[in-house]
Amino acid sequence: MTVLASPSRGASLWQRWRFHLSALVLILPIVFGPAWFHENAFFDGKKGLGQREIGEIAVGPWSVRLAEFKLVAPDAEGRAGHAKEFALALCPACVDQVKAAYLRVGKPRNLRTAGALFSGTPYRQTAEMRVPERTTADDELWLTLEGWDGTLHQATIPIRKASPVMAAWLEKRGRP
Amino acid sequence: MMGFRTGGLTLAVIGAVSLFIGAAWAHPPFCICKMANATTVSCEGGFADGTGVPGVRLDVIRYDESVVLQTKFGPDSTVSFKRPDGEFYMLFDAGPGQSFDVDYKDIQ
Hints:
By secondary structure, chain A is of the alpha+beta class.
């Protein structure tokens, strides 16, 4: 006759709870699934350019559609401070002419300081724009488009128009 | 059989967790400049995800766009230089869209 060794307490707890754990693992996606599909459709662009479209902005001979990617205050980026994400779509006629789009707070000194570079397709690209410490709600965003022929064109968008959420966040934060 | 069950559970967990993994996020650059002493500026550069910037270019440029100094971050992602007179800015340039300019007024 063989005597079965009794499992340790830890092993016993694991045996008892692993069923509940596996059930939880299967239930969680069901609970959070709708939110995930909503978010995924948003990242795919099926829900539009961004959560809040700012509108059509003329930039020299070109135009773009600009949107707040998410309706949230700027994200904390550790030592890099805060950043806010925007989405952009080039006008169909200028897709072949625009090489790059940049966005920053305040007037850039030159192309090297033009700010965050938009990446993605010409029809929907995003950039995470840095929000400098000294930014106020009355400042402006500067959008710079660089053409394949080397030409540069710029447009300004008041922060209050570009992102009321960000303006409110800046006012609440106050000037350092 | 036991191993098969454990493997199945692991796959279920990985599958469930992967549903909540979002898109990759950008990691913006930063450059923090301080006065190391009365005459020397010390700058530390990097990216928000902790990536260092050894060998990356840092230019010190006057407001009239004349370049005072072209230097690079050291192995510890810091660089020190004598503070120029007048109005200037420091440009940490890791490529298009990956630059960070610090005005002389923002030297801590």
